[in-house]
Specification:
Layout (H helix, E strand, L loop, with lengths): L4 H11 L20 H13 L2 H7 L1 E4 L12 H5 L5 E3 L4 H14 L7 E4 L12 H6 L3 H17 L4 E2 L23 H16 L11 E5 L18 H8 L1 H8 L4 E4 L3 E2 L2 E2 L4 H11 L5 E4 L6 H4 L6 H11 L4 E2 L3 H11 L5 H17 L13 H5 L2 H14 L1 E5 L12 E5 L30 H8 L5 E5 L11 H5 L10 H16 L3 E7 L20 H9 L5 E6 L9 H4 L2 E4 L7 H9 L62 E8 L3 E3 L4 E9 L5 E11 L10 E10 L4 E8 L1 H4 L1 E3 L4 E3 L4 E7 L6 E8 L1
Parallel strand pairs: 1-2, 1-10, 2-3, 3-4, 5-6, 6-9, 12-13, 12-14, 14-15, 15-16, 18-26
Antiparallel strand pairs: 7-8, 11-16, 17-19, 19-22, 20-21, 20-25, 23-24, 25-26
Helix pairs in contact: 2-15, 3-14, 3-15, 7-8, 7-17, 8-10, 13-14, 17-23, 18-23, 20-21
The protein binds 1-deoxynojirimycin.
Length: about 775
Amino acid sequence: MKKSKRWMIFLGLMATFTGSAAFPLGADAQAGPFSAEARQKAEDLLKQMTLDEKVGQLNQSAGIVIPGLANDKPDDLIVQGRVGSILWLTDVKEINRLQHLAVEKSRLHIPILFGFDVIHGYRTVFPVPLAMASSWDPEVEEQAQHYAAQDARAAGIEWTFTPMVDIARDARWGRIVEGAGEDPYLGSAMARAQVLGFQGERLSPQSVLACVKHFAGYGAADGGRDYDSSYIPEELMQNVYLRPFHAAEEAGAGSFMSAYMDLNDVPASGNHWLLTDVLRKDWGFEGFVVSDAFAVASLQTHGYARDAEDAAYKGITAGVNMDMASQTYTRNLAALVREGKVSEQYLDSMVLPILEAKYDLGLFDHPYVDESRVDAVLSRPEGLELERRLAARSMVLLRNEDHILPLSRQLKRVAVIGPLADSTHDIEGGWTVEGLFGNGSKSHPVTVYAGIRNKLAKDAQVTLVSGPEPARIYPGLLDRLAGHKPTPPPTPQEIEQWIAKARMAASNADIVIAVMGETANMSGEAASRATLDLPGIQQQMLEAVAATGKPVVLVLENGRPLDIRWASEHVGAILEAWYPGTEGGNAVADVLFGDVNPGGKLPISWPRTAGSEPLYYNHNLTHEPEDRPDFTSRYWDINSKPLYPFGFGLSYTTFRFANLHLRKTTMGVGDTNEVSVDVTNTGAVAGDAVAQIYIHQRYGSASRPVRQLVGFQRVTLQPGETKTLTFPLGKNELEFWSPQKREWVVEPAEFDLWAGEDSTATLHQTFQTTQ
Ligand code: NOJ
């Protein structure tokens, strides 16, 4: 494992909290995510800084006043040099005003680093991250995040709290929408792509600093309840939860965010093992860590810190460089240094990477936003084209009985049903920058209803019956700030009227397109659900329109898999569109009408119902696997297998996988090998296949997953065309962290190998590794 020179310095400082530093911070030290030049400048600047100014760099203040939470106006602190960063501010005038205070009025003129959650686009909103992962196309994801970075930078945001790389095995957890799903290999590819998209190969005045979050284990919250404790044994941390984080770190991510929850009884934001032993010592990370919002203060809430001073002490010594929003460092750190509880040299090591980031981002040379450019950059038309392409690439066709799709553009009578069909508010999903904190989005999203309309002749009759909005059951902080009111549930009479209208529209149509799922605020932070049902009266509406006998296509807009057992048997076609973004409605119509052949695949195992969770394909074999006749691992009342497996997705064409071949069937544990497989388009139209490679180690020092993804490629094939795809098979694919050996190993063993279209692929080979 990589151990950097800076880490050696850091270790020395940790050992001498109260004493003087034994190691100088040399300019020749390894650069990490930041340049040697930035290091030199940062060290020079650091020498001029007072204790309060150093602590100031570790303070991130809220740029808006949040009732009951962040109330300090940052102006005075900025002038005193006591604000290193500001978050939750997108008003460019205000950004410039505060930056002027820092650059012109503070003693050392150190610019502020402005951070915001640019998660899936700025004005042009790309599909939500779970959707992007469904594209199985890291290149396009990188392009999208690069585009978002250009927008963000032009609008004064230099730091994004992206990517969220938390593995999620439980759809009840609302934040599953913000990540890449359940798989560490796919998750690592998407993590890498996003870091490169935002930062480029190296940070520059054009790029945006990435922040990998939420370090770590946040997705394993007990019961899927957001913020609840995670209990994750070290082998699972290493083999599953930490892998995408490490991939992001290796891609050069300059910052990490520590998570909110308790990890194995130690809050992640005060967890020395995570933030220092793993991140700095094992991986050699040389960037900086920001806590999640208020998480340093919350060390008290967890019952981990005695008081605010103890929280500051535990946060900083665990390895949190910057305190997001809680002001705990501002109020307590200087005293801790003066009292000798934290050495100034250690403090210096925590300040340094923040200054380095500011230098590499070019903030000292160009601290201000050019207000005259912002609107033109944010309105670039190529963003909409990219958005539409990526959205369509992200959609997963789950069912298509009797080739009901693609639809004809000659259709004359279409009924579009459901509360999400024409909702501009939901199609972009959560975390829309301009939509947050009251700025008001200028993105003009295209709904599915509008997208369908755009595809059909002017005289086609397209009837919209929306139905009541599924109750917004979480009138949380963001909803309150955005002025949303909880929706009262419909009365029995209203329900009857809506059902009658839907039935009538369906009866008068040639086809019904039901657009259903969850409102955008039902997924995301603090939006866990105990059931995965279609909320509100959507299920009733769906059953009513299907009862007319008309063909029904269900388009899902949602941030998590839902319980669609009924639909999976009674509805002709199901298209998972997730929250597809600004051009989402056009992209849905592109797929429905066959202008795009769907090629997205599930990045999660689709549960039948909430009671199946947590559910994931890469589980271990049980004592009595499910297909045995008697004492098996199964439920009495439902099939315990997923409704749709990980990696699944249909196409308007079909593919054949053949000739699965290994260059060597016996390989040394240190060797690299190569797998090849032929993929043929056996249908009549061009389409995209996602070739997936899985392995299983049959025995060893630990039980290994029944299947584990170790390679994938998305390819376009013309009808009849065959491509031979190759995949590396070496240390990266075969190694695992052995709980008994307590290290990363590739073991001599026998392996199964599969290639195919999803995690149930049957094309099989075996190979062997030898010492
Ligand atoms: C809290 C969320 O957990 C985190 O994902 C986000 O980046 C911060 N707030 C800042 O908005």
